[in-house]
Amino acid sequence: MPVMGPDETERAALEQQISAYLRVMTAESEQIGRAFAAVHDVRPTDFRALLHVMVAETAGDPVTSGELRQRMGLSGAAITYLVDRMMTSGHITRESDPADRRKVILRYSDSGLATARAFFAPLGMHSHDAMADLPDADLHAAGRVFNALIEAMRRYQDDLASFTPPERAAD
User: Fold this and answer.
1) CA 124, CA 117: separation in Å to the nearest integer?
2) 3 state DSSP class of 93
3) What is the four-CA torsion angle of 56, 61, 64, 68, rounded to 10 degrees?
4) Cα distances (Å, whole numbers) of residue 104 to 87, 96, 100, 101
């Protein structure tokens, strides 16, 4: 095994620290999601679905029920039940895809969007306050780091799609 020089050791430590921060952010985000679910009387799975709908819509690529089913790893019946439940609760709507009228996409309803904005606005203010003293160059660098981590996570998901777990050894 090659010996790492001081620069490589520092780089490895920085990458490990960023990975640790990402895990902490994921855990904190999970807690906030649970709080949203509890306050708005939705299930944690519903919150995950709402998050997927929001991420897709924000990216300009709204999600279909089938795509949501795939992202969440649910059966067709389970996703139908989940989408129906979220529509009944007023969080999302189904709309014809303007690019392909045969497709139906999921979108936040106006009331669902208002609910999400009201809940998450204070987090936005806390985030703004936390970053207020950081120079723009740091924010640009953080953006590049987040984009790199997102890409790494997407590549890993692709790897997992073809992953075959080893057979369990006999006990």
Assistant:
1) 9
2) strand
3) -30
4) 14, 5, 9, 7
Cα 136 to chain center, whole Å?
25
pLDDT at site 150? 94
Strand partners, 63: 106
Distance CA(84)–CA(65), nearest Å, equals 10
Token pair of 129 as six digits? 């306050």
- In this structure, what are the phi and psi dihedrals at residue 11, rounded to the nearest 5 degrees? -60, -45
- For 92-114, what is each residue's pLDDT tens digit? 999 988 888 888 899 999 999 89
Lookup: tokens for 57: 């819509």
Task: Inform me whether the pLDDT recorded for 168 exceeds 90.
Answer: no
Dist. CA 133–CA 143, nearest whole Å: 16
**Rg, Å, the chain Cα set:** 20
Count CB atoms within 10 A of the CB of residue 85: 16
Task: Give me the phi and psi of 49, to 5 degrees please.
Answer: -65, -45
Each residue of 37-67: pLDDT tens digit? 899 888 889 999 999 999 999 999 999 999 9
| CA dist., res. 153 & res. 21, Å (int) | 15
